[in-house]
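input
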Amino acid sequence: MKQFLSFLGKSDYVFCTYFLRDPEKKVENVKYVQTATLELIQNEGVKFDRFTFFLTDEAKSKNWEGLKNEFKKHMIDLNLLEEVSIPSGKEEKEVWELFDIIYKNIRENGEIYVDITHSFRHLPMFLTVVLNYAKFLKNIEVKFIGYGALEAKNEKGLVPIFDLTPINEIQEWTIATERFVKSGDAEEIYSKAEKIRTNFFKKGKLDLEYSNAIRHFSTYLKGLTEDILTNRGLTIISGTKKKKISENIEKFKNNDTNLVYKLKPLKNLINKVDEKISHFEDEESLKNIFGSVKWCIDHNLIQQGITQLQEGIITALCKKFGYDFKKSKDREFFSGIFNVIDKPEDKWKNEVGKRRDEARKILNKNIIKKLSKPYDRLSKSRNDINHSGFRDNSIKDGSKFKDKLEKDYKEITNILKEEGII
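output
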């Protein structure tokens, strides 16, 4: 479904000759910019399924018949023409009514072409906002936003139709940035950057060094956020992806003269990324797993934060007592240590039961006593979430988990700092 959307104004339209992109390809002596826009776009091979015009009563009485007559002269199919009455939007109630009308008349899964030349000056801006909303709920794609710039008529009397589609792209960057800043999701940043990078590199407008820097930056940023989302502890601790992100950030900071214009929003975003990953190290470090927990807290990834914080305790104890945190048996041993506190030795099982001498020594260490209560709280929270609250004494209010996680994070990191572990 290819749909053309436009507002019809109530002013006196004047006859002009319009062009889009190429002055040699023009539509001469037309009164309505919509006629020229449709003809020029259709000449590029686009076949429309619907022309939807939003018009107030005043605009209808002044220009609707004239527009239809001009469409006939230019062989534009009137069977595709759709008239939608709208209020002027001067009052708040009318604004919300206008929103509802426009949204309802945007087709599902459509490719949308827009003319924003005429009507009240706030309506074209309003339309772009509604389109942004419809992208998510109706799965539309905005292919073109045009504006007939009468004030930019050239010396030959030709009026350009400006392609303002970058407005849509800037809105998409805004959404991608908001998702990253608020939820820690870099998927949209990656998708936008990679699409633009590939396009410009193929056209020879982006050199190899910068193409690689953009690709590596967005790929590793997406990878790091996915590792956090899916609890990839070993990868997070390694610091590999953080290092790659930082290396490519430096390439941007040192020289951005070759950065193509469509990637300017990415350049502005880089400082925010640098700030948000500053609590990660560029090398293998325990600080990375606890930095990841802080990330989870900041972005409301509560289940991930609880899991990583508890696994971070086990990792820290492995490191402190000379065990290999990458070996599952050693991790089981320290997990078991907390489970046998105050239990008689005949109840010790699994790895703790196999390593009784080691267990006795470690159980007497002060750090185990300090960490035992927060570790137990994390176990209860983790089990409560994993069993969807279908347990006795489960937490009824989901918002409580974040409060508990924040308190446990502060207590545990303070203990580990006092012990010189992180």
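quick obs: DSSP finds 17 helices and eight strands in the chain.
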